[in-house]
Specification:
alpha/beta, Rossmann fold, seven-stranded mixed β-sheet, three-stranded mixed β-sheet, 6 helices, 12 strands, binds glutamine
């Protein structure tokens, strides 16, 4: 099967997401004509089975989503969404920062930069529900958000003391950490598998 994945390429760690999804498509045995493309405008979403929303600065990404006319096209995008860090902030319904125009695709409240100064960035081996071999995931957190309340249909996959750091709702996966940086592709593979890829 040939699969096209889009990576929202407005700001943030876009190339790392492209590399990780390219590797995950190979490991899922997708066809040689599979591709990972940059998404900057609505037409770029055409034919994509999924969209990655990268880490970066959620206020900036939000502004550029609006500026590029991508807000409704992403809200109505029929494929999967793989959202990391700033992406998790954007997926929420509630964020206490008026500069972020959230997509509201997952019924959850998100607290930006939830780990404070001392632990702005850290790494931890954390259990994540539903991974194929059940082993912990080496999670890299960079000025990460947490989910402080999850509503209907949002399934919690991982939690730290500060709050929820991995959640999914149907075809949407939101992560406070950065699986595109660590070389462990299990969350990408699980996401693709859930989409029937
Ligand atoms: N703190 C950033 C924000 O809220 C997210 C950081 C990241 O994506 N690594 O936008």
């Amino acid at each position: 099967m040939d699969v096209k994945i889009g990576v929202l390429a407005l700001q943030g760690d876009v190339s790392e997401h492209i590399d990780a999804f390219s590797a995950a498509l190979r490991s899922r045995g997708c066809g040689k004509a599979s591709s990972v493309v940059e998404v900057r405008r609505p037409a770029d979403l055409a034919g994509c089975a999924a969209l990655a929303i990268p880490g970066g600065e959620s206020t900036t990404i939000s502004r550029l989503i609006d500026k590029n006319g991508l807000y409704e096209p992403i809200r109505t995008f029929p494929g999967g969404i793989f959202a990391t860090c700033a992406g998790m902030v954007l997926m929420a319904t509630d964020v206490a920062d008026p500069r972020v125009h959230t997509l509201g695709l997952m019924d959850m409240t998100v607290d930006r930069n939830a780990f404070g100064r001392q632990r702005e960035s850290f790494e931890a081996d954390i259990p994540v529900a539903g991974l194929p071999d059940g082993g912990p995931f080496h999670a890299i957190f960079i000025r990460a958000p947490v989910v402080t309340a999850a509503g209907s249909g949002v399934h919690v996959l991982a939690t730290l003391d500060q709050g929820i750091v991995a959640a999914e709702k149907g075809r949407y996966l939101a992560l406070a950490f950065h699986p595109e940086l660590g070389g462990d592709l299990r969350l990408h593979e699980r996401f693709l598998q859930n989409l029937g890829i």
